[in-house]
Amino acid sequence: MTGRLFFSPVLVAVVLIAAVLVLQRVLRKRVRPAVLHTLWLPAAVILAGVIIFTGTNSASVHSPDDEGRPLDETMMEQLNDLFFAGSWYSQALTSTYEDPRDVDLGQMFYNGSKNRQITPEEYQYIQQQCGFPGIDVMVISPQEMDEALLEVFGLTLEDTHNVGLDQFLYWEETGCYYLVHGDTNAIGITFAEGQTLGEGCLALTYTGYDGTYLVRLRLGQTESDAGHVYIESHQAIDPAYTS
Fold first, then answer.
1. What is the 3-state secondary structure (H, E, C) of 174-242?
2. Alpha-carbon distance 6 to 228, whole Å?
3. Which end of the chain is more exposed for a tag (fewer CB within 10 A), N or C?
4. Where are the domains of the chain?
């Protein structure tokens, strides 16, 4: 599942207009012109329904004055679906930060690439460098890091403060980052509750094994990323949390 929650009425309008024009051209020689004009009526009704639907479902996150409204069950389900175990969204919550540029890259990319496995040649070279025979080696490219960071934060690797990047070994020959370990830090997040903050922002809480956490999300507001979910911050809020 992608990080986009809503679709655009503009796109629906374009598709409907194109469909009506094509249908009119096909039927032009078969029916009277007056009948052809009536094809616009159902298209208008469909478009009005889409606008009402999207307005009803997104008003709570797009209205700057609608602050403090609890998120409905559908919205909570959609958000929880983004944070399944091992997703880049859930991996982004393996460290805490007030500024997304301070995300711990060593923790977020701890489990390596989702697209490929390490080659025997890479494994042998990294083992020689680290001296941990028999331990798993994770690999990930800067390009995949960029893709994940853009999806989750709207940032690139260059935009971050490189927190935790020194945990990796970089091999110039492959242009990739490597991490040696025998475990995983994959987590799945289930938000307990959430509310709107106004101006397209949301606040959600969940309980982890060591306390309660607050996650601030922002929904994209431009035509190209409307409804896309970005993480703004991740902080521990349980007073008992001491780490």
1. CCEEEEECCCCCCCCCCCCEEEEEECCEEEEEEEECCEEEEEEEEECCCCCCCCEEEEEEEEECCCCCC
2. 8
3. C
4. 1-83+189-243, 104-178
Identity of residue 176: C
Give the pLDDT confidence score for residue 57 in this predicted structure: 45
Question: Given the structure tokens 């999806």, which residue do they identify?
Answer: 151
- Name residue 13's amino acid: A
How many angstroms separate the Cα of 135 from the Cα of each of 8, 103, 110, 126, 226? 48, 26, 14, 10, 43
Its pTM stands at: 0.73
Q: CA-CA distance, 91 to 112, in Å (whole number)? A: 11
From the list 71, 42, 59, the residue with the least C-alpha distance to 6 is: 59
Neighbouring-strand partners of residue 211 = 208
Q: Are 214 and 235 in contact (CB under 8 A)?
A: yes
The answer to whether residues 201 and 228 touch, using CB atoms and an 8 Å cutoff, is no
Question: Distance (Å, rounded) from C-alpha 63 to C-alpha 75?
Answer: 16
- pLDDT at site 13: 63
Paired residues of 113 in beta bridges: none
Query: pLDDT-based confidence at 200, cuts 50/70/90?
Result: very high
